[in-house]
Design a protein that fits this description.
Keywords: Membrane, Transmembrane, Transmembrane helix. The protein contains four helices and 13 strands. With about 300 residues, the chain is of the alpha+beta class. The protein has two domains: about 140 residues, no CATH class; about 80 residues, no CATH class.
Length: about 300
């Protein structure tokens, strides 16, 4: 009977401080691999230098995490090195210093380029500013430790003018540096969409592919039901998978002779070519009415 190989470190008890754990192998040796003497490590824990980081969210620059390839379980993580190497995760005291994280992934186009996947806001200054800008926007709260906005950054498209105004009105130096940095990143990333939306809305026009830029969650819209206009509150919207219609999920106030309450209702804008007047759409935004008094 062959001798039983001992597992590395088995039966030992070693007390190590919690400040630092050193990477080790699995500790299980192959049949042809000699066992390692623990004394060969010669590691002096007293000589470890603890890194000192700045206060959380104190750096107004940008840290760019990158997504790694999925593991065997299909799970990907974020690292501070470009894809291709095995690197340490970026969610460390080092990344915690930055006002926000700019997370990137490889483009699906296959051109070996990176595109912004999401932005994680960490700065207390940015959270304070964005709390005003995004006030009332469904699904967004600035009380979270790290607030994530995902591409295509719909909240910023919908509230861009308010964000720009808040940036211009900020007077505190550090907060201004933080918001300027975020604004520059988003202005570059969203320039084409914002410019297209602005030019279309200026003339009261819209295209089918740009409908999402004007239908902000929480808006009041009008839709004809049984020959009569009815007011709805928009909850969410998006293009259908077949791109044959733009679907709007909304609610309206109903009465059943006993009590008032909300009912869900789905609205549709059929696909159309070219540009079209916003006021000619089957679903009309209340904010687009020039004479709102006529609706009362």
């Amino acid at each position: 009977m062959p001798p039983i190989r001992r597992m590395n470190g088995a039966g030992r008890s070693r007390s190590m401080p919690f400040e630092r754990l050193f990477p080790r192998s699995s500790g299980i040796f192959g049949p042809d691999q000699p066992m390692r003497d623990e004394s060969e490590q010669n590691i002096s824990l007293n000589n470890i230098i603890t890194a000192h980081y700045g206060p959380p969210s104190s750096i107004y620059g940008v840290l760019n995490p990158h997504q790694t390839n999925p593991d065997d379980n299909g799970i990907a993580s974020w690292t501070k090195e470009p894809p291709g190497d095995i690197v340490e995760p970026v969610y460390t005291p080092e990344s915690g210093q930055y006002a926000f994280l700019l997370r990137k992934v490889k483009c699906d186009s296959g051109h070996n380029k990176l595109e912004i996947n999401s932005i994680v806001v960490q700065s207390a200054h940015l959270k304070r500013i964005l709390a005003r800008v995004m006030d009332g926007y469904p699904g967004i709260t600035m009380s979270d430790e790290g607030v994530e906005f995902s591409n295509p950054f719909k909240p910023f498209i919908h509230r861009w003018e308010m964000f720009a105004e808040a940036r211009n009105n900020e007077s505190e130096a550090e907060a201004k540096a933080h918001v300027d940095s975020l604004y520059e990143v988003l202005a570059t990333e969203l320039n084409d969409v914002i410019t297209c939306k602005t030019n279309l809305v200026l003339y009261g026009m819209i295209t089918f592919n740009m409908l999402w830029t004007i239908f902000e969650p929480g808006y009041i819209v009008f839709y004809t039901v049984d020959g009569r206009k009815r007011a709805f509150q928009l909850e969410r919207s998006g293009h259908g998978l077949d791109l044959k219609a733009y679907k709007i999920y909304a609610v309206y106030i109903d009465y059943n002779a006993y009590e008032f309450g909300y009912r869900k209702y789905n609205l549709f804008i059929p696909v159309f070519e070219g540009i079209k007047p916003i006021m000619s759409l089957p679903v009309i935004l209340y904010v687009c009415y020039y004479d709102k008094d006529t609706l009362c």
